[in-house]
Amino acid sequence: MEQTKLYVLPQLSFGYKDLEPYISEQQLMIHHQKHHQAYVTGANNTLQKMDKARKENTDFDVKATFKELSFNVSGHLLHSLFWQNLAPPSKSEQEPDGAIRESIEREFGGFARFKKEFSSAAQSVEGSGWAAISWCKETNRPLLTQIEKHNMNAYSSYRILMVLDVFEHAYYLDYKNDRAKFIEAFWKIVNWEGVNRRLHEIQK
Fold first, then answer.
1. Are residues 103 and 67 in the same domain?
2. Would you report the helix, strand and coil content of the chain in percent, each value rounded to 5?
3. Residue 60 maps to which CATH number?
């Protein structure tokens, strides 16, 4: 069997201090280097365990292994997208423009309504999880969803445009247990240019 290509922790497009005062250097560093890295390591360990079993023609617990792999791979993919959703305050627009702005206004009636619904999704997701907005090519409209834990409780095959991580590991050093305050801070550092770029790629 060929050597399995493994997952790699992505580098950030900004420095650890660059999101201050909304996300501190220490918070961002721990989130990226410790928590995200843990999902990368977990996914790679599971792949290697599966490869070993297949090479030796031995059995493994399929249900538990696939669940573990799904959790870690989803954590890796969602975090990778989350970093792309962020930009230093000096480069972040308070509101979107272009195609994503037009889509939001058509779907929600305005940015204020979209921001309210997205924030509510992030605030109310049960336990640890994510708020996400995806794009449905069939209906040509954006759809909001909640993702519990890392399990992709999303619209199957729909491309995600933007996510917000509301696991406590994303904000506990800066905001303690005040998730709402972290959600409000998120809107100050959104990389709308990146969201627009993903939408353009989907619509091509």
1. no
2. 50, 10, 35
3. 1.10.287.990
Q: How far is it, in rounded angstroms, from Cα 142 to Cα 121?
A: 14
Q: Which residues does residue 163 pair with via DSSP β-bridges, in sequence order? A: 132
Same domain (yes/no): 38, 115: no
- Look up tokens 């109310």; give the residue: 124
Q: What is the pTM of this model?
A: 0.93
pLDDT digits (tens, 9 = 90+) for 162-179: 999 999 999 999 999 999
Q: Are residues 127 and 52 in the same domain?
A: no
Residues 80, 41: one domain? yes
pLDDT at residue 157 is higher than 70: no
Q: What number is the average pLDDT over the span 95-124?
A: 97
What mean pLDDT is reported for the chain?
93
Residue 197, token pair as written in the block? 């770029």
HSE of 75, CA atoms in CB hemisphere, 13 A: 25
Counts for the chain of helices (H) and strands (E), in that order = 8, 3
Domains of the chain: total: 2
80 pLDDT above the threshold of 70: yes
Let me know if residue 196 belongs to a domain.
yes
The domain of 132 spans: 98-203
Residue where the block lists tokens 């998730």: 179
Q: What pLDDT shows up at residue 156?
A: 61
Which residue type is seen at 54? R
The number of residues making up the chain comes to 204
